[in-house]
Amino acid sequence: MKKTWLLGFGFFSISITWSLYNAFVPLFLDSFLGSAAWIGFMMTIDNYFAMFLQPWIGHRSDRTNSRFGKRMPYLMAGMPLAALFVILIPFHTNFMTLVLFMVLMNLAMSIYRSPTIALMPDITPEAERTKANGIINFMGGVGGIAAFGAGSALYGVNPSFPFIAAAGVTLISLLILYRSIKENRTSAVPITREPGWHGIRARGGLDFTTVMLLAAIFFWFVSYQGVESLFTLYGKHHLGLEEGEAAFSLTFFSLFFVLFAIPSGWLGNRFGKKKTIILGICGLFLVFAVVPLVKTMILLRILLAVGGIFWACININSYPFIISTGSEQNIGTRTGLYYLASSLAAVSSPPLLGLMIDNFGYGALFVCAAGGMLVALVFLLLVGNDGKIAKTPSEFINRQQA
C-alpha cells in the first residue's frame, strides 16, 4: 500500500495538469476563435492522441526491458517534456504557437500516461488491484480539487502561474516515482519481452471477453461523458438554473466519486469486480432515469451525489477488471485499449447526445444516458465473472447452458 500511495503522486500530477488545461486553455482559445464549437473541437486533441497513440505506447512498454524497468523510461522521457510544454502554453504569442504548444503537451503526456497507469498492476498483486485503483483515483481526485481551488487563485494573480505550478508538481512527482519505485526489484509482474501483436492476441488480448468488456466501457463512458459535458446547459435551459449553480451542482457528483473511490475498491475486492460494476450500473441507471423528474435543486444535488457513489463502483473496478481478463505480460496493451474505448466515447458522446437534445429537447439528455447504461449492462453480462473468463462466444454459451 505504501508503494500505491507513492504511485498516486503520478495520478495526482496528471489530474492537476488536465484539470488546469481544461479549465484555462479554452480562455486562451477564446481570444482567437469566436466559435464555441471550434473551441470544443480543439479541446478534444487529447482524446485523439489517446485513441491512436496510447494503445501503441502501452504495447511498446510491455515489450520494453531496460535497467529502469518497463514503464519508468517512458515516465522519464514524457514527464519533463510535458512540464516544459505546459509552462509554454500561457506564453503563446499567437494562435499558431498556442496550438503548437497544446499539441506538443498532449503528445508528451501520451508518452507516459498509459505506462503510469500500467505501473499500478505491475507493482500490485492481482488480489489487491481494486483497492489500489481506489487509492490512486482518490489521489487523482484530490489533484483535480486542488487544481480548481489553488489554480483559480493563481490564475487571478497571473495566468501563467497555474501552469508553472503544474509543471513543478509533475517534476516533483517524477522524482518521487523514480526514487521510490524500482520496477526490477518491486514489480509483482515478471519483466519479459512479448513477441508482438500476434503474441498478444494468442495470449488472449483481443478475445470475446475483451471485446464485450470494451463495448461495455464505451457505452458507460458515453453516458458519463455526455452528462459531464452537457449538464451545465441542461441546468440552464431545462431547470432554469444560473450557470454557476448548474456547474456547482455537478461538483457533488465529482466530490462523492472521490470520497467513495477507496470504499468502492474495497467492495470490488470483497465481492468481485463484476458484481460491484453491475451494482454501479444499475444504481446510475436509476439516478439518470429519475433526474428528468426532479424540479428542485436540493433533490438534484442529492441524486448527483448518489450518482457519484455509483460511478465510483463502475470506474474504480473497470480498469482492474480488464487487466484481470488477460495475461500479466500485456498489461500495457490492455491499458491502451481501455483508454481507446473511453476516449472514443469522449469524442463521440457530446455531439451524439447534443443531436438528441436538438431533436427532442434537453429532457433527452438523461434519458439517453440511462439508455447507455442499459446497453453497457447487456455487454457486461456477456463477460465471465472474475476468474471465469470466456474467450469465445461459444465458450460463453456453453458455460451458460452448463
Name some characteristics of this structure:
2 domains; Growth Hormone, Chain: A; 402 residues; globular; mainly alpha; 18 helices
What is the gist of this entry?
With 402 residues, the chain is mainly α. The chain has 2 domains: 2-193, Growth Hormone, Chain: A; 208-401, Up-down Bundle (Growth Hormone, Chain: A), CATH 1.20.1250.20.
Q: Which helices and strands appear, and what pairs or packs with what?
A:
Layout: H1 2-30, H2 36-42, H3 45-52, H4 54-63, H5 72-88, H6 95-123, H7 129-157, H8 161-180, H9 183-186, H10 197-202, H11 208-237, H12 243-259, H13 261-271, H14 273-290, H15 297-324, H16 331-360, H17 364-381, H18 393-401
Helix pairs in contact: 1-6, 1-7, 1-8, 3-6, 3-16, 4-6, 4-16, 5-6, 5-8, 6-16, 7-8, 7-12, 7-13, 7-15, 11-12, 11-16, 11-17, 12-15, 13-14, 13-15, 14-15, 14-17, 16-17
Helices and strands, in N-to-C order?
Answer: HHHHHHHHHHHHHHHHHH
Percentage beta strand:
under 5%
* CATH level-four homologous superfamily name of the largest domain: MFS general substrate transporter like domains
Cα(first) to Cα(last) distance is 39 Å
Mean pLDDT: 82
Largest sheet: none
Question: What value does the Rg take, in angstroms?
Answer: 21 Å
Write down the domain tally: 2
* CATH arch. level architecture of the largest domain: Up-down Bundle
If you consult CATH, what is the topology of the largest domain? Answer: Growth Hormone, Chain: A
**Helical content (DSSP H or I, runs of 4+):** over 70%
- Provide a count of the helices: 18
Quaternary structure: single chain
The poorly predicted ranges are 191-204
Structural class: mainly alpha
Got a strand count? 0
Shape: globular
CATH class of the largest domain: Mainly Alpha
